[in-house]
Task: inverse folding
């Protein structure tokens, strides 16, 4: 890949911005026409203008839009606050003022090309019975190069720091990719007898040992030498951005790969959106728009973090082999003792297959058997482990009870 590819992409987006802005302005004028007139005469024109105005990615985090939560006999509004932050991430608290005291939970979001808002549904559900915090990662294209690097070790360090902010008897839930760092952080904190080591750790669909039943994602990560990933997927943040010249795995490349895997479905979705907009079917159009507002809100990945993950997690399998280190120290999951451990997997998960997360149970030999829980959810894929109907009705009640038993 040309080291200027990201710069070229950004230049193209900047040059075509007037067309999108123009389409948005024209659409706003079209909507000023008398009710019914624009639908009948200019419906398709309006639909076309709206699609034109939406034809770009965004690098800004969408809103969480968390709704009031029922606790006891009343609803509590949810207030977002940031009690602690670093250049690379915020510890975001979903505060319910005046609500009864509940177990504190740190929800560890993946750094995988999308923002932590991907877990808004997980947050909404957890808030019923927990005081919820989330790792709200910042887009590296907005982080000046002077702030240093962010690799797998820095990710783990952030989790330890965030848990320290929550304080003793708090709990940690890691979703997908950060399960390795979460387990490493808990091992280090346990070994140090850290005052804020988690009371429980839940790992959901995480790649603890990707040697077990490798998926296509795992196979791709091992199909090429590390240098191939460095040469073909890493680029420099454009000079227009605050993070100019920082090395990243660009978000636009990631989303392009995701779209190409299901191109026909995405084309059909946009054709359907055009028709719904033209016919004035607002509800159906909004459903599609909401999905793509999140899907096309992309985050670059710091190059160090991406390469460390490919090498340490997917190619060399350091954690399950007892070779992972943190600041020169061996990471020893067996040192975890005074902590509950829950692992959750999905039957149809084609990203993190059955057994890869369960492997954490064998590594944590110091955890008493009665404090270990494993759940394999039938009928769900990767995202169904932490979102959707079966997450709400079948997985969450088990997780809630596990956390409360360990509080």
Result:
């Amino acid at each position: 890949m040309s080291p200027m590819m990201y710069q070229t992409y950004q230049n193209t987006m900047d040059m075509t911005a007037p067309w999108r802005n123009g389409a948005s302005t024209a659409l706003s004028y079209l909507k000023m026409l008398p009710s019914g007139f624009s639908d009948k005469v200019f419906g398709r024109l309006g639909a076309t203008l709206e699609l034109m105005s939406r034809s770009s990615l965004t690098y800004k985090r969408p809103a969480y839009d968390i709704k009031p939560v029922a606790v006891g006999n009343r609803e509590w509004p949810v207030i977002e606050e940031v009690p602690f932050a670093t250049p690379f991430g915020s510890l975001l608290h979903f505060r319910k003022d005046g609500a009864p005291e509940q177990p504190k939970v740190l929800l560890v979001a993946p750094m995988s090309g999308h923002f932590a808002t991907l877990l808004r549904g997980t947050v909404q559900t957890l808030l019923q019975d927990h005081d919820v915090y989330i790792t709200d990662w910042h887009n590296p294209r907005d982080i000046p190069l002077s702030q240093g690097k962010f690799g797998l070790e820095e990710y783990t360090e952030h989790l330890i720091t965030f848990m320290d902010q929550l304080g003793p008897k708090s709990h940690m839930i890691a979703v997908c990719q950060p399960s390795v760092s979460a387990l490493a952080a808990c091992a280090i904190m346990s070994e140090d007898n850290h005052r804020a080591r988690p009371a429980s750790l839940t790992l959901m669909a995480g790649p603890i040992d990707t040697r077990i039943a490798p998926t296509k994602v795992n196979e791709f990560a091992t199909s090429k030498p590390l240098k191939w990933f460095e040469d073909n997927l890493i680029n420099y943040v454009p000079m227009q951005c605050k993070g100019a010249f920082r090395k990243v795995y660009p978000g636009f490349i990631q989303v392009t790969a995701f779209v190409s895997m299901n191109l026909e479905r995405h084309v059909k979705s946009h054709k359907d959106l055009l028709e719904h907009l033209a016919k004035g079917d607002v509800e159906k159009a909004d459903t599609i728009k909401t999905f793509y507002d999140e899907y096309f809100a992309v985050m670059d990945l710091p190059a160090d973090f991406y390469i460390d993950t490919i090498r340490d997690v997917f190619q060399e399998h350091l954690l399950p082999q007892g070779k992972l280190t943190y600041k020169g120290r061996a990471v020893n999951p067996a040192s975890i003792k005074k902590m509950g451990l829950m692992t959750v997997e999905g039957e149809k998960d084609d990203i993190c297959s059955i057994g890869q997360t369960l492997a954490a149970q064998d590594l944590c030999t110091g955890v008493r058997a009665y404090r270990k829980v494993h759940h394999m959810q039938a009928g769900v894929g990767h995202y169904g482990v932490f979102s959707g109907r079966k997450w709400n009705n079948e997985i969450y009640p088990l997780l809630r009870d596990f956390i409360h038993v360990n509080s």
About this structure: The chain has a mean pLDDT of 88.
